[in-house]
From TrEMBL:
InterPro entries: ACAS_N, AMP-bd_C, AMP-bd_C_sf, AMP-binding_CS, AMP-dep_synth/lig_dom, ANL_N_sf. Residues 517-598 form the AMP-binding enzyme C-terminal domain. This is Acyl-CoA synthetase. CDD domains: PrpE (cd05967). Residues 68-452 form the AMP-dependent synthetase/ligase domain. Residues 6-60 form the Acetyl-coenzyme A synthetase N-terminal domain. PANTHER family: ACYL-COA SYNTHETASE, ACYL-COA SYNTHETASE SHORT-CHAIN FAMILY MEMBER 3, MITOCHONDRIAL. GO terms for molecular function: propionate-CoA ligase activity. Belongs to the ATP-dependent AMP-binding enzyme family. One of its GO terms (cellular component) is intracellular organelle lumen. It comes from the Bacteria.
Amino acid sequence: MTTDAYAAAYAQSLEDPDAFWGEAAHAIEWITPPTTVLDSTNTPLHRWFTGATLNTCFNALDRHVRDGRGDQPALIHDSPVTGTQQTITYAGLLSRVATFAGALASLGVEKGDRVVIYMPMVPEAVVAMLACARLGAIHSVVFGGFAPAELAARIEDAQPKVVVAASCGIEPTRVVEYKPMLDAALDRSTHKPESVVVFQREQALAAVGERDTEWEEMTWDDLVAGAAPADCVEVAATDPLYVLYTSGTTGRPKGIVRDNGGHAVALRWSMGNIYGINPGDVWFTASDVGWVVGHSYIVYAPLLTGATTVLYEGKPVGTPDAGAFWRLIAEHKVRAMFTAPTAYRAIKREDPSGALIAQHDISSLETVFLAGERLDPDTYEWATKVLGVPVVDNWWQTETGWPIAANPRGLQPMPIKPGSPTVPMPGYAVATLDETGSPLPAGEEGAIAIRLPLPPGTLPTLWGDDQRFVDGYLSTPPGYYATGDGGLVDEDGYLYVMGRTDDVLNVAGHRLSTGSIEAALAGHADVAECAVIGVADELKGQLPRGLVVLKGGVDGSGAEGGRICAELVQRVRDEVGAVAALRQVDIVSALPKTRSGKILRKTMREIADGRTPNVPGTIEDASVLETLTPVLRPPA
């Protein structure tokens, strides 16, 4: 590859997107090939490959089997929490997917119907996703750690015809039963599915069909017994493949829509050009199918490529030790892996010298990719030193589905700068803007925005709400997509992402709304008002902290205050889920606000992180900050 391969690709993607993405589309097999590449007839909404048709499942499975890859491993399920491993070939995965697609079709699932999937890291989760894609149905995967309130909100919005769940998830120290949480979610949702399908796991069998419900309940095994395999359904490139919900700063969760055509083209392009993974390579992404990284880089991108993907049901530490990743890499001959910096910080804490690496032959490993939160220089330096391979940051969002900025290892490897995810990828016209929406020069920090149109694979809209998409993402300023992150671009064109500019937390790579956590706190009988902020944490990147003002007459001191705080922590666990990781709640006399009543979360966050706070002139009572400072930042 020539030394200017990146510059040429990037320039063409912005100056002639029809030519660039039209060429990339040749890597996908179409039923009706695209004649229109970029459709800008309804700006600011843009669509890709209008008029073309395909099937994503066919591109991920059938064509590989047809072309001679049937005996190649497609999926390796490695589950230290159950002590089992399973390798499924492309032919085997195709058989399972076609059968389950037929089973879903027998329940009346058709093109355009929604199916909510509430499962842990088991092959059946991947089978269910691909079976939906095969039928042209729209899957919405909900992370198995979410509590009933969060699950109910997603069911309410997606309105699925069928819910597919597992009986339980398995943590290193406990079994988490899913069916009671699903039952509670369905009870509180006004939308009821027609059918609920439960995959039984021996660690905790669920009660199926024992309640008097409006919907039919059955086990996975009973449903697939005798089911006839289903063929692929032709869908438009612009038809939705899935809806994945992400936390907003306020209100109901946002349903990120992913289309079929643009998604397939972008992910296939990214796998080879960004991650350097080709057909037949073994690729390991340590994430969860409930998050966007799991959708893109556990399931779709590797299978669209014809690679082997590792589905890992375990933790970076504790299953059984901090050498878990190295064992997996050695056993499965992994060429590259992808996870969040949190995982490497956890490994570093348990095994600071990297001694456990020596117990495994990880010579197959060529690259480590990290994303989901900022890769701090300390973690980068440590991982680079102990592994001896490039450790590569990349930055993107649930909304974009694939990297905004990365180091294109397959296209043209570039020098690594610690703290930077490197440069914008093709199609992403990244700019840093000042408060008036004007572009800033190199080196000056501002709001990171992307000039429209966004490239293929990014969200075309929000589920059922074009106007919310325009208002929330495309209006400040017009002509740009607002990422909600701040940062700068240096003189070499490298992007530096400094953190969120809104009130969304990033806990171990998981985006969580302060609003959902605050709603749980506010529901306590003794709480008058509350705020949740994300504070810097060495392991998880950010951790939420709760600050509550109690109602008049409520004793918040001593043991009584301790009881209230413990109840509040438990409420968040029950309402939002353990993934929120809220462990600290402080009772305070007042919260800092502007005169219009907006709580100054950013100011409190700056105090908690040890920085000099930027106190707005609109603050109502500056003395509140003096009272809060020793709470947020106790003296050393």
